[in-house]
Amino acid sequence: MPDDYKENDYLWIKELLDYPVNLGKRLGRFDDTSQIKLPDDPIDCVIFQDRAKRAIRKIAQNKGHILMVGRPGTGKSMLANMFKAVLEKSMGDYLRPKETIVAYPGKDRNHIRFAYEHPAKIEKIISDLNTAIETAQHSLDEFNLCDQIQSTRKVKLALIFATCLGVAGGFYFPPAFIAAGITGIGSIFMFMQENNHRAQEKIQRENNGGAKNDVKHLHDMVPEVLYDPRKDQDLMTRISEPSARNMKGGFRHDPYQSGNLQTPCHMRAYLGAHAKSPIIYIDELKTLVKVGYMADLLEIMQNKEYLLEGGRSTGSGAADRSENYLRADNIIVACCNHDTLMYLQEEGDGAFLSRIEDKGEIIQMESAVPESEENVKQIVQYVKQEVINLAQEFQEAWGEVIEKEGYESVRKRSEHIYGRSLPDDFKPTVREFTKCAVLEIARELRCRSSDGKLCSILRPINGIIKAAEFEAILEGSALVEPRHIRQALQEHLSLEGGFSKEIGEHKNNLKKYIGSMTDSIGYVVGLAVIDSKSSGQMYGQPLPIHCQINVGTADTVVAPGKIGDIAKAAAQNVRASIKKVLNKIGAPYVGHEMYVEYIQAHGGVEGDSASVAMDIALVSDYIKQPVNQRYGVTGSLTGDIILAVGGVTEKIKSIMDPSLGMEGACIPWLNKYDVEPLLINTDSEYIQKEEIPGIRIFRGNGQKDAFDIYFCKTKYNVYKILMGLEAEEVEARMVERSKKDLAFMQNLNSDTGATK
């Protein structure tokens, strides 16, 4: 229909051809990334997250909490590190703990007390206590039997004196000799006893030369230093799997629980992040929810203190407790995905989110950002940062080898890694990116998003940049060129990408086979995508569709196979659209049975982006008009109007391989800006088929292998491209087919009545 397009529509399509030049201007003037200077502010190293960076600066000013919500790879961890760096530089001396946390014995063997002391003071106290205990341990008196020896010696001398008297008296009184004999024997015994005491004293002195006092009970009373701020200077603790053990602390198991060898509980205590770290970074909040620590965290965030308790219900530390509270004035920096956020909104009426918003902010990380001039310039900065990071990795990997053995040894060792000979000038040093190579990165970021935005899931792009660097190094290129980026994209695939590549090869062969074996009536090449959950990338693939319309007793549509609810609804909408046309053109009513088949779509189909393709295939079968199998089509059909769909850039890329034999595609007018990335580093020109505007992209050098993309507003525009028919001719042939079907049904009914 000529009035589908206005004069400005054609100007807009022509302006698309200026996109590569305009993008180059927005990138700035440089030949390669060696001319790029990085910002001094560490927070500005995170790109595409301007709103998050502004929020972080504000929160850092107020020392509030942060919850960052977004997909993996959007820069949450980097922002957390930058948040720490900003606080370190601005208020680190005031945030960092200055007091030592000390544990003392409590009221009984299962309780302890905490104290906060100046490190030097408590160090001196503990040193003095240990010195006093050591002195007491070695303060043993020397073993002696002086008293026993002295008393024995006195008795011995008295007996000797009595013996002498008895001998002297015996000359005058003979019985006195008997008494002298008895006392003599007694003196001999006492002499032996004295010598026995002396020998025992000598033996004991020799055996007890290294003896010490038992002072274990004194050691068990010495305070235990659980945290020394002089040894732990880091402001932030990263917790990847939060639990009561690493967040609050606890009591270790005591293997010496009997025989008076047990370890007192204050020496088995240890502290978690709450007591030691001013900033706690919870890398994945989902794990905290799974382990059931949320209730404890909410209480600590509210009270800013907690009691240290034993862990499991069994074990030596189960009954251990602290008598007083530990301080816990932490700044919580947490990250989660959208599914966890939904749980937090329902759990406890959003209690955790309320705590965050009370002293901070919930930051929504951008998965895609507008292609503004500021964001485009950040692409260059991002590539430069990755080049610097890779240079550091090379230094860590090969720095020592280069220093000791030189680059020749690096080349020989690398040959063992790659399993082939390498150029003599091979050096594992980074290459800067040319401006055209940066444009390829920008192109890829656009391809991984839609609506004219740049994808901000950058972690997978890091791998592509590194792979391109290695391609340039192995080739011996001085700079990273666009061809290195394209080669890296071919090899650096996600799990879904590798799976999609295999399916794509199968679909390509299937498409070629169908095109050679059919008359193309009722067949159309639809376009589909597979989303990668890890990288956020979409992988396009052709989707052959076959449809039939048979005259029947009722209006039905059958779409067998594993298709989703949206795809089923799309099939019903197509049926309604065709019936609407039949009513509009005054075709006689006849019931039709419509069949839709997604050929070998074993993984299932969901979405409404194939509704235009279904309409084309059904109309083709209805009027028996072949469909051009060298064109793909995508779009969401609403009445006669084609609406935008997702993944158009990747859908087009999936059929642009010249070996597939495809010549073009029809896409929704509203998706016209999704063609812009395909124009980077290629030759292109404006085309027009009657009133339908389009762009021709040359896939080969020298303007060879043309690929035409047409921007369609209505399904009649697609009829013109794929079947070569105007709307009036299509409608006329539909009326003709409807009359034939009516006559067929009337004849069938008359034959049935005659038979009866």
Task: Tell me what you see in this structure.
The model has no long low-confidence stretch (mean pLDDT 80). 37% of the residues are buried. The radius of gyration is 44 Å and the shape is elongated. The chain is of the alpha/beta class and 756 residues long. The protein starts with 6 loop residues before the first helix and ends with a helix. It folds into 4 domains: 31-43 and 368-491, Helicase, Ruva Protein, domain 3 (Orthogonal Bundle), CATH 1.10.8; 89-109 and 231-253 and 260-364, Rossmann fold; 146-207; 498-742, Ribosomal Protein S5, domain 2, CATH 3.30.230. Strands 20-21-19-18-22-25-28-27-26 form a 9-stranded mixed beta sheet, with helices on both faces. Helix 3 (50-62) runs parallel beside helix 4 and helix 22 packs across helix 23 (611-623). The protein contains 26 helices and 28 strands.
